[in-house]
C-alpha cells in the first residue's frame, strides 16, 4: 500500500516537472494577472492605510494565478509564493502589525476567568 502511494506521488511529480510550461505561466501571470491587479489597486489608497479588509481584488488575483498554474499544467509553489511576497511588499506594507484590542475587550475576556477562579473555592463542596 505504501509503495503504491509513493509511486503515484513520484509519477505526479515527474509529470509536473516534465510538462511544466514556465513561459506560459510567466506570460499569463506577468502580462494578465498582475497588471489587472495593479490597475485595480491604483484606485485604493494603499499608501495611506492598510487596504486588506477592503480588498476583494486579492482573491481575484489568487484565482487568476491558480488558472495560470492550471493552464501551464503545474506550478512550483515557490513561484506563486514569490509573486505574492513581492505584491505584499508593494501593496500591504502598512498591514505589517496586528493591532491589539482595546482595554474593554481585554477586560471582557479576562475578568470572567479571574472572577470564576476566585469564586471556585466557595462553590466546591468537599
Write the layout of secondary structure elements.
Blueprint: H1 2-19, H2 22-41, H3 57-71, H4 77-91, H5 103-123
Helix pairs in contact: 2-3
Main location: membrane
GO biological process, one term: regulation of G protein-coupled receptor signaling pathway
Membrane topology: Single-pass type I membrane protein
Care to give the gist of this entry?
The chain is mainly α. It has helices at 2-19, 22-41, 57-71, 77-91, 103-123.
Describe this structure in words.
The protein has helices at residues 2-19, 22-41, 57-71, 77-91, 103-123. The protein contains five helices and no strands. The chain starts with a helix and ends with a helix. The longest helix has 21 residues, at 103-123. With 126 residues, it is mainly α. It has a domain at 21-99: DNA polymerase, domain 1 (Orthogonal Bundle). Helix 2 runs antiparallel to helix 3 (57-71). Helix content is 71%, strand content 0%. The chain is elongated and about 75 Å long. It comes from Astyanax mexicanus. One of its GO terms (biological process) is regulation of G protein-coupled receptor signaling pathway. It is found in: Cell membrane.
Number of strands: 0
CATH-defined topology of the domain at 21-99: DNA polymerase, domain 1
- Mean pLDDT, nearest integer? 77
Report the top-level CATH class of the domain at 21-99: Mainly Alpha
Span of the ends, CA to CA: 56 Å
Write the element-wise H/E pattern from the N-terminal end onward.
HHHHH
Q: Which structural class should the secondary elements be placed in? A: mainly alpha
Work out the strand percent.
under 5%
Q: Based on the structure given, which CATH architecture of the domain at 21-99 is correct?
A: Orthogonal Bundle
Using only C-alpha atoms, the radius of gyration works out to 24 Å
What is the overall silhouette? elongated
Relative helix content = over 70%
Q: If helices are DSSP runs of H or I spanning 4 or more residues, what is the number of helices?
A: 5
Largest sheet: none
Parts with pLDDT < 50 across at least 5 consecutive residues: none
Amino acid at each position: 500500500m505504501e509503495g503504491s502511494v509513493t509511486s503515484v506521488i513520484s509519477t505526479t511529480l515527474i509529470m509536473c516537472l516534465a510538462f511544466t510550461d514556465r513561459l506560459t505561466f510567466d506570460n499569463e501571470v506577468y502580462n494578465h494577472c498582475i497588471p489587472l491587479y495593479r490597475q485595480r489597486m491604483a484606485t485604493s489608497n494603499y499608501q495611506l492605510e492598510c487596504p486588506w479588509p477592503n480588498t476583494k481584488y486579492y482573491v481575484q488575483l489568487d484565482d487568476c494565478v491558480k488558472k495560470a498554474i492550471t493552464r501551464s499544467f503545474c506550478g512550483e509553489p515557490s513561484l506563486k509564493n514569490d509573486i505574492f511576497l513581492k505584491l505584499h511588499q508593494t501593496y500591504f506594507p502598512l498591514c505589517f502589525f496586528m493591532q491589539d484590542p482595546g482595554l474593554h475587550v481585554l477586560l471582557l475576556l479576562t475578568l470572567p476567568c479571574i472572577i470564576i477562579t476566585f469564586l471556585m473555592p466557595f462553590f466546591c463542596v468537599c
